[in-house]
Design goal:
Layout lengths: L8 H15 L6 H8 L3 H8 L2 H24 L6 H17 L8 H7 L6 H24 L4 H23 L4 H23 L10
Helix pairs in contact: 1-2, 1-4, 4-5, 4-7, 5-8, 5-9, 6-7, 7-8, 8-9
Length: about 210
């Protein structure tokens, strides 16, 4: 049929996403994108717009894919908070161990490169990090942590989750990454136990 796209948009976006993820925005050329997607430059422009527009599509696709998995992992936080948060981190650890995808995290890479990226891309990365922090805060509130403690742990665990991705790119082993997670979960366990005891609404530092 005339005017009908002769390629699968989702497959092309996945290929572009992996290319950006592996090489980064700056080191990915239009020729790279053409090679990985199988589309010529004209088709890329007509279907996705310029390089920035395509990158934003890929960033949104990445955030939605892993965000839904994080949401599912945290769904039982009110009943089993430690198990839920561990499952949250398992999403990241499993992605890092997956040989079919690059190491690291596309959002973390984007955030680190924000000073040399366009403002729309930097803003989208910050938005994605904010959403991750918000989902953790919601889960920890459901686990009956105080609002302040939930905020603090959400900030901490967002930072830990991103650091796992960065560490994986420098060759950290799964054992090292899991040690980082275990220490964070140990701190959360102490906070939850303190909360369940009499006067458990005291600050964590007391």
């Amino acid at each position: 049929m005339a005017g009908k796209k002769q390629f699968d948009v989702d497959i092309a976006l996945d290929a572009a996403m992996v290319q950006f993820w592996r090489a980064g925005y700056a080191d990915t050329s239009l020729d790279d994108l053409s090679r990985t997607t199988g589309l010529n430059r004209s088709s890329i422009y007509s279907s996705f717009g310029d390089k920035d527009s395509l990158y934003l599509r890929c960033l949104d696709r990445y955030a939605a894919r892993y965000g839904s998995r994080y949401d599912q992992a945290l769904a039982r936080a009110s009943e089993e908070p430690l198990r839920a948060v561990r499952a949250f981190f398992e999403i990241t650890l499993e992605r890092i161990a997956d040989p079919d995808v690059p190491d690291g995290c596309l959002i973390a890479q984007t955030a680190m490169a924000a000073p040399v990226l366009g403002p729309a891309i930097a803003a989208r990365a910050n938005e994605a990090l904010g959403l991750q922090q918000a989902r953790l805060r919601t889960a920890l509130n459901a686990a009956q942590l105080t609002e302040d403690d939930a905020d603090d742990f959400a900030v901490h665990m967002t930072a830990v989750n991103q650091s796992l991705a960065v560490m994986s790119r420098t060759g950290a082993s799964q054992k090292q990454l899991r040690t980082v997670v275990d220490i964070s979960l140990s701190a959360l366990s102490r906070a939850l136990h303190a909360r369940s005891r009499p006067h458990g609404n005291r600050p964590l530092s007391s």
